[in-house]
Design goal:
The protein is mainly beta. It contains three helices and 38 strands. The strands form nine sheets. A ten-stranded mixed sheet has the order 12-13-14-16-18-20-22-24-26-28, with no helix packed on it. Strands 1, 2, 4, 5, 7, 9 and 11 form a seven-stranded mixed sheet that branches.
Length: 465
Amino acid sequence: MKKFFSIIVSIFTLCGILASCSDKIVYNVVQSPPPEKSGYELFYLPNEEESGYIVYCAQYYGEGEIVIPPTYRDMPVVGIGNFAFRDCSGLLKIELPDSITSIGISAFEGCSGLTDIELPDGVIYIGDFSFSGCVGLVNIKIPDTVTNIGEGAFDGCSSLALNYYSDGLYLGNDDNNYVVLLKTRDKMITANTVNESTRIIYHKAFFECDKLNEVNVSASVISIGREAFRGCSKLHRVSFAENSSLTDIGRGAFEFCSISNLTVPNSVRRIGDYAFRGCGNLNGITFDKIGKLSDIGVSAFENCTNLKRIDLPENIDLIGDRAFAGCVSVTEINIPDGVSTLGKSAFENCNSLIGVIIPGSVKRLGDSAFKNCAELWDIILSQGVISIGNDVFYGCRNLSMITLPNSIKDIGMGALSGCGELSSIKYGGTKEQWTTVVKNSGWNSGVGKYSVGCADGTLTESEGG
């Protein structure tokens, strides 16, 4: 009964919708059975798209097996819910239908009696901690269809039978033993070549392998997990196959490594938060000009202190907070038209940067975006930019000229504060339009003696204030 109440409370807490959706939920409450019996009760919730059902276990008692049906109410059973069978220590075997595409967070966590499980072809997602603590789990078959495996999914699975290749330990299936590179066999390795059939490099697979200096990532890899190579302090060379399928570089994947040059495959869509933070030896990044990269995460390249040029590809949409902050050697940045989000402190403390053009696709410059870029002397904001956040150019002490479009509506607090060399603001609108621009408190405190050049004449500092 404890299992029953913990699951029901969890579902009510997480979803908050059971009362309003009671006609869509099917479950049966069973009184405590006699001790010699065993069994289980399942219940079902529709998925978000209402195209199928997610299954949960309301109660499990004794020891035995569970067979999940392929359909319910003439609709497919497509997922195992979050926490669905957590701590069902008496669960010895479970059979999943081919309709299953996702395994939820902590779905089988703590199922210590489970020894074998086969995930059907079609499973795409395996959630965080889904099999964590399954100490008796020996065999698990991972299909090639899997694209996302969450953090800690196999933590504590101390009995797992793993496949070996090039000092790596893998999980897979009957046709492909190497779907997931789970971890290295030896933390002292100096080089690794990922198997040519591998789809996922698991999170922390090579975490703090401080002797590793070279990695060759095969074309089949689609995802590099969270902190996969974090802290590999001697890792200076990462090679991606020419026809790489890689789409996602996870959070902190290469944080604090010694990579010197990086060529990002054109298949990559996202570089995660902190992915290359603190790679102080990185002096060059090559992006495919027309590659698929759209998102650069928070602090993705922060404190890459030897990086000198940033030439972003055309499809970039988001530059996250502090993405390139502290890249003190960068002199040139190309921000392509199409970027819509320029995060807070994105280029803060890029002390060697001398000029930048902001495309009109960026509607608002995030707070402190170019704060303390001491050598920045020329800035052009293109037509379409609407708002300059707080402290955006704070402390750009060598800034002498800034070009603003007539689309500007708002200048944030301290936006040009401390720009002591500022002598000219070139504004694309009329003098009257300039007076309507909202200029927040201290926007120009500590600036030099400047004028505002408008389309119909010039305003002095006092007039344009």
